[in-house]
Amino acid sequence: MQDAQLYTIIALCIYAIAMALIGCISYGKSKTLDGFLIGGRNIGAWVTAFAYGTTYFSAVVFVGYAGQHGWNIGIGSIWIGIGNAVLGCLLSWLLFANRTRKMTKKLNARTMPDYFEKRYDSKGMKIFSAAIIFIFLVPYSAAVYKGLGSLFSAVFPGVETWVWMLIIACLTAVYLVAGGYVATAYTDLVQGIIMIVGVICLVVTVLGHDSVGGISGLIENLRNFQSLPDDPNPTTGAQLTNIFGGSSFKFLCFNIMLTSFGTWGLPQMIGKFYAIKDTAAIKRGTIISTLFCVIIGCGAYLIGSTSRLILGGVLPEGGIDAVIPAVLMEVLSGGTLGIILLAIIMILLLSASMSTLEAVVLTSASAVAVDLIPAVRKKETKPETQMLLTRLLCLAFVACSFIFATQNIPIIVSLMSFSWGVVSGCFIGPYIWGLFSKKITKIGAYAGILSGLLTVGITTLVITLNSGFSSAAAKSPEMGVAAMAVSFVVVPLVSLVTKKPDAKKVDEIFECYNEAE
């Protein structure tokens, strides 16, 4: 264990120095608001593609989703990774990347609330959407901290989880505040490479474990698996090897939809399209990002599906959230090579989490500094002041998320699912329809945001009052999917019966699709 700790500390120090250097180097490119928030709209294909992929996947995917669904569903959970790559990545890039880049450039919009204000001519919508982002992305970020903290605690059992969360928070704050979007984009490239190498190494190591026996052995051993008599979550070999999830088919479908279609409305994901430099970069980025998501997504759930075999069907003391940490310690704790791989995997998970954290923090801080405060004050704020506010709010958001994460709130998957479902459910309708249809009205867009928020809020309240919060948490994927569907349907329906926007202004906006590069 001491060797594993030493190698991990050395790897962490090297990683921290590299991230800090990138932040310092990027400082010169982040002195303007455009540079700080969207990299001057001049980010290339590889950097944007990796930024999108690394923001998509955090430690919660490995610790929470892959651990829980791999343990309960088995092989069928890999469909979540496939869905994420095809629906959440490939389809998102094909449908929205170029339109988002062109329209936000035409509107000079740097954030999602900024886009809503200028697309629908509504300052109130800007304030409302900025408040939603800041409020609901705090628990999202806290879930990432909590997932990563539990992993490091498994390697360093003598160190409190909050210490690791504090270290992660400080490191994220340093390079994000210094370099803004440029720093996050280039650190994402480095982090993405680490993630690919780490996942490939981990998949090979896990499949080579004696209890697994390769791909063919995995299927055969899972088919013969029998739960222990005192297993609180008993299952069968038929369930674990059913390619469509068996009795969990419905649950599996909702999780695929939530984690895949959810990216279509998340501001920290959509923001990557604002910054990419041209159509050619988008074409290359689509391929690169999709391949990245295939490797990381499918790899994570494949690892999760081996957990019952590697752990002998015994759920770890920490419950579902401790499954993947326990698997890592089991397969990587023996021999020098295993210890080195463990250090690499810890950096992989740190990279996955920090890339998500930096995107969420920048999105939330800009929502308040650039969108909320100037709109509430009703006075023009100098760019220098907005820059300072954004940097300070990045620090404040990191601190809020850290404090929230230190509270003993269980079930990090549900915590993330709620946040994901609310934010995407509010924005997916007005965002997508605003890109494609000239007929969408301001009231229609407002209705989409409100309907998404109320769908999750009212449903959660009703279930909690009747059956307790744990029952509501179990339904978070269904609520998130319902919120997205309701928002997407409500926007055009309400637009049909409300006052139409100024046709001339809307035509001018949509001219961006006909303009030359």
Describe the biggest sheet?
A: none
Pattern of helices and strands: HHHHHHHHHHHHHHHHHHHHHH
Mean pLDDT: 82
Structural class: mainly alpha
Number of helical regions: 22
Overall shape: it is globular
Rg result: 22 Å
Summed up, the domain count is 1
* Regions with little confidence, pLDDT below 50 for 5+ residues: none
CATH architecture: Up-down Bundle
- The CATH topology turns out to be Sodium/glucose cotransporter
Strand content: under 5%
Can you characterise this structure?
The chain has about 525 residues and is mainly alpha-helical. The chain has a single domain (about 1-515), classed as Sodium/glucose cotransporter (Up-down Bundle). The protein is about 80% helix and about 0% strand. The protein contains 22 helices and no strands. It has helices at about 1-25, 35-40, 45-55, 60-70, 80-105, 110-120, 125-155, 160-205, 215-225, 235-240, 250-260, 265-275, 280-305, 305-310, 325-330, 335-375, 385-405, 410-435, 440-465, 470-475, 475-495, 505-510. The mean pLDDT is about 80.
